[in-house]
Amino acid sequence: MKRVYVLAVLAMVTLGCSRPPMSGPPETRLGRDECGECGMLVSEDRFSSATLIERERERMYIHFDDIGCMLDYEHDKGPSIKVLERFVRDHGSRAWVSASEAVFVFADRDRLRTPMGSGIAAAATRERAEGMRAAFGGELMDWERLMTARREWMEARYGTSTGAPGR
User: Fold this and answer.
1) Mind listing the pLDDT tens digit for each residue in 117-159?
2) Do the beta carbons of residue 54 and residue 85 sit within 8 Å?
3) Do residues 50 and 63 make contact, with C-beta atoms less than 8 angstroms apart?
4) Which of 8, 25, 48, 107 is most buried, taking the most CB atoms under 10 A from its CB?
5) Would you tell me the crossing angle of helices 67-77 and 143-158 to the nearest 10 degrees?
6) Strand partners, 22
7) Alpha carbon distance 139, 74 (integer Å)
8) pTM for the complete prediction?
9) How far apart are CA 145 and CA 135, in angstroms?
10) Under a CB-based contact definition with an 8 Å cutoff, are residues 143 and 102 in contact?
11) Phi-psi bin for 56: left (phi > 0), alpha (psi -120 to 50), beta?
């Protein structure tokens, strides 16, 4: 009987101390969190993004200073990472939005200036994205189309889809 009691207490302590798995958008510390792709500090929240990954049964957020960096990181890492969730900032409100629900503007990098020059910004709604397109030009895309468009852009600009030379 005493053994059952000890096991029950140990189980309660273990369950009471365990944290729920990470989920949802992260807390980004501007000027302190480093971009997982380019190494720059994340300092402009309206273009920042984050990916929640699982590696060796541990969940962690990878922060990015530019949506283009997130796309490049995921492409470069390929199947070596397990992406659980992706988050981008709505350019206007700066609120987190799931990348799968966001509408993206992919514009000329000279018109839509982003930290690493991707020319990519996100909006929570199509209406907001239309407003950005009116201001910056470019094309509206969902996440799936944006991934392909970024690879095509990298190939045309650098002759490779694996990132800029020197990165």
Assistant:
1) 999 999 999 999 999 999 999 999 999 999 999 999 999 988 8
2) no
3) yes
4) 48
5) 80
6) none
7) 22
8) 0.82
9) 21
10) yes
11) left
